[in-house]
């Protein structure tokens, strides 16, 4: 799930208090890919030749530089959802990500489960990260991915690189047959501490680039924004309007 922040973080979160953060229905809706509770959301459109590589939980000095080198070797731009406290500790790495032409998004300050986080802290998590990233990059931060948001990344955390690549290859090929693009969620960092070992994910990214670069077009997630010229979407999806 990807959420645009262009309408303003505070406005997008205004309904949280009234809904009740402990309500089971809210918790489900907050995790569901089609939920609109945090604002407009995005999923892959009907463009089967496109792949979006995305990386969560960085910047990570132990893995992100190698990942950037791999992406540069393949001349591919990706989307990085950065944890605010890590970005604050690694401003030069944030600037390197931006300088390489990648899209930077907000992944909260400390990676809490926002489905059970008090509204005031949610606002603080998002605004503090947004302000930090904008300070380092000098550019607006328009997209946000909630931590733990419907992606079930736990299965990737313990897998070896070839196993990760195999699972994502299956996802890509299945979406291709159905006529959809694919949003690939990997990790270059870990939310528990900076310096996490994400080398399997980085290696898997290289494997996927080598396999699909000749036949697919890699995009950053803003390419799927209907506001962008040339973007088309399928009205049967549940996530429109999307960023």
Rg estimate, integer Å: 17 Å
Shape: globular
Which superfamily, in CATH terms, is the homologous superfamily? Glycoside hydrolase/deacetylase
Helix content: 25-40%
User: By helix and strand content, what is the structural category?
Assistant: alpha/beta
Mean pLDDT: 78
Largest sheet: 5 strands, parallel
Order of helices and strands: EHHHEHEHHEHEHHEHE
Care to describe what's here?
Strands 2, 3, 4, 6 and 7 form a 5-stranded parallel beta sheet that branches. This protein has 243 residues and is of the alpha/beta class. The chain has a single domain, classed as TIM Barrel, CATH 3.20.20. Helix content is 40%, strand content 12%. The longest helix has 19 residues, at 119-137.
Give a short summary of the structure.
It contains 10 helices and 7 strands.
């Amino acid at each position: 799930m990807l959420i645009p922040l262009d309408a303003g973080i505070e406005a997008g979160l205004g309904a949280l208090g009234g809904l009740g953060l402990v309500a089971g229905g809210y918790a489900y809706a907050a995790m569901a890919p089609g939920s609109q509770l945090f604002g407009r959301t995005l999923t892959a459109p009907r463009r089967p030749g496109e792949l979006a590589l995305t990386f969560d939980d960085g910047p990570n000095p132990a893995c992100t530089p190698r990942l950037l080198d791999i992406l540069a070797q393949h001349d591919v731009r990706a989307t990085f959802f950065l944890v605010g406290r890590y970005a604050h500790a690694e401003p030069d790495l944030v600037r390197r990500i931006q300088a390489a032409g990648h899209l930077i998004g907000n992944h909260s300050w400390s990676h809490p489960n926002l489905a059970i986080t008090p509204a005031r802290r949610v606002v603080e998590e998002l605004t503090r990260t947004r302000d930090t990233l904008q300070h380092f990059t000098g550019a607006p931060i328009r997209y946000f991915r909630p931590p733990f948001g419907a992606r079930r990344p736990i299965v990737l955390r313990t897998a070896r690189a070839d196993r990760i690549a195999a699972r994502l290859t299956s996802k890509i090929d299945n979406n291709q047959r159905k006529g959809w693009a694919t949003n690939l969620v990997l990790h270059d960092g870990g939310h528990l501490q900076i310096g996490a070992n994400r080398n399997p994910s980085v290696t898997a990214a290289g494997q996927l680039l080598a396999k699909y670069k000749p036949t697919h077009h890699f995009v950053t997630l803003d390419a799927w924004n209907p506001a962008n010229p040339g973007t088309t979407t399928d009205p049967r999806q549940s996530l429109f309007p999307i960023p």
